[in-house]
Amino acid sequence: xxxxxxxxxxxxxxxxxxxxxxxxxxxxxxxxxxxxxxxxxxxxxxxxxxxxxxxxxxxxxxxxxxxxx
Length: 69
Prior knowledge:
Layout: H1 2-42, E1 56-57, E2 67-68
Antiparallel strand pairs: 1-2
């Protein structure tokens, strides 16, 4: 009977360790998902050509007045 009780204790220790690691992993992944969702919701669309970067008109030189694309 002494041998069986040692084996049971070893199995219980491993089981507790496994659940601890799995619980940590679960918490970590849930935290990552929450952070990713927050970033997705907070991102704003960029205004295309808002600061004059699109269709720039050349001001000096031979090509003065032409549109650079």
